[in-house]
Design goal:
Number of strands: 10
Shape: rod-shaped
Number of helices: 3
Radius of gyration: 64 Å
Oligomer: single chain
Strand content: 15-25%
């Protein structure tokens, strides 16, 4: 059997390769050298580390690698793009429903449209049960929009437990008498200017005795200066009245041959009282048919 000229001349069956045993010993050296050359050729044609994926050890792999089967084992590092995975760092938008069998560790920002049970939530648009909500919940979302009780009352338009109002703010309802003043309020008391319920006590005689001439509530004998008659109850300004008195006057009845008859008439001064007065008698300004003068004085009461 000749010395093989190519590695392709070798067979995987040992008995089919040279030497067969019948060759001259002189050719053994040629066989050994040829086989050594084939081994060197295999060595030199082996792929470099950068051109193959190793089964063990560390290696940096470039290019797109497509796996037709699921990767078994742990994969570390960051994926620049993941079609159906979740990054461990960086920003990512994830669609679809994600179910977590364990508690999520770390902070979650953003809004939860619906949360069944939120132990702690910064912003929850809707939560069935919220164990602890941090931050401020707007009034429009069912919160108070504040972090203090006073601020909450203000935002909700509620009055504080202890507060004051202007009297003009009270537009309806009835105030309890206890809020109006001290003392006992009943049908025998009145509310004084010092906000005290006091018993009505009037010293009529003392008040009358202390009144000055022409004071409101006093009476006077007055004559009116207007050309009119005044019935009981009529009112007139004090400027149209004069303080008067009664004197004896003689008048003549011409139907009895001029016989003189004594009668009473009023006399008056030029002093006019102040205020407004009510006629308590009759004030007349009409002359009698047989008289030279008539009385126009009457009792008047100052009412203002």
């Amino acid at each position: 059997m000749p010395v093989p000229s190519s590695i392709n001349d070798l067979s995987t069956t040992a008995g089919s390769n040279s030497p067969a045993g019948s060759e001259s010993p002189n050719t053994t050296d040629d066989y050994l050298r040829t086989h050594a050359a084939f081994i060197a050729s295999l060595r030199d044609s082996k792929a470099a580390d950068a051109d193959v994926v190793k089964l063990t050890g560390n290696q940096t792999v470039g290019g797109v690698k497509t796996f037709s089967s699921t990767i078994t084992g742990s994969v570390s590092g960051n994926a620049g793009t993941v079609t159906n995975g979740v990054y461990t760092t960086g920003d990512q938008t994830i669609g679809g429903t994600k179910t977590f069998s364990s508690t999520i560790v770390g902070s979650i920002s953003g809004n939860a449209a619906t949360a069944t049970t939120a132990t702690s939530a910064t912003t929850a648009t809707s939560a069935t049960t919220a164990g602890n909500v941090t931050g401020t919940v707007a009034v429009a979302n069912g919160g108070t929009g504040a972090t203090t009780a006073g601020g909450a009352l203000t935002n909700l338009g509620a009055a504080a437990a202890s507060h004051t109002h202007a009297a003009s703010d009270i537009t309806s309802g009835t105030l309890a008498t206890a809020r109006l003043g001290s003392g006992t309020a009943n049908n025998t008391t009145f509310l004084r200017g010092d906000q005290t319920w006091a018993t009505v006590s009037v010293d009529v005689m003392g008040t009358v005795a202390a009144a000055a001439v022409g004071d409101v509530g006093t009476y006077a004998f007055l004559r009116h200066t207007t050309n009119a008659d005044y019935a009981p109850g009529a009112t007139l300004a004090g400027s149209s009245l004069r303080y008067s008195g009664i004197s004896s006057e003689t008048w003549y009845d011409y139907t009895h041959s001029g016989a003189a008859t004594a009668t009473a008439s009023s006399v008056s001064s030029s002093s006019a009282p102040s205020g407004t007065w009510r006629c308590m008698g009759v004030g007349s300004n009409t002359l009698g048919a047989n008289a030279l003068a008539s009385t126009t004085a009457s009792v008047w009461l100052r009412i203002s």
